Amino acid sequence: MKIESPALNRAYFETLQQLVEVASFPRLIGMRLEAIDFDSATIVIDIDERHFQPFRIVHGGVLATLIDTATFWAAFARIPQDAGLVNIDLKLNYLQPAIAGRLRAEGRCIRPGRTLSYSEAHIYNEQGELLAHGTSTLMTLPGQGFDNGVPKFTSA
Q1: More confident of the two residues 26 and 133
Q2: CATH number for the domain harbouring residue 70
Q3: Taking Cα atoms as reference points, which of 135, 141, 66 lies closest to residue 98?
Q4: Which of 28-32, 100-104, 110-114, 151-155 has the lowest mean pLDDT?
Q5: Residue 72 counted as domain residue
Q6: Which pLDDT score, from 0 to 100, does residue 4 have?
Q7: Is residue 47 in some structural domain?
């Protein structure tokens, strides 16, 4: 049985992308919410000097942050507008080092839920090589959402 989803209000997500873009930590690390939809999100980052560890490869914390962020936004569209969301666990595997260029984290919500959701993310370099994979369990926080002044869903 397929569950019908309400229609996403694109204006809400455009406003959301702008809010994420100016938030302190995403701006500090240089990551951007490139795309978001039901059960999916794409985060990108252009590697520069601030991302390297002493051996000139991207610090593992950068990759962990991308996985954390992509799994979060992949689950976000299904939660009610007045609810917040928080990752309660994060597991990841580093498969090969990131050296330079643009990294793309593709998140996918495997199991959305009212209270708990489960998401995964893959990080790819510009050549399409898989660099890391991770999973996260996310908990919905009723009443902890934020109001950006735009409805999240359109009326059908």
Answers
A1: 133
A2: 3.10.129.10
A3: 66
A4: 151-155
A5: yes
A6: 52
A7: yes
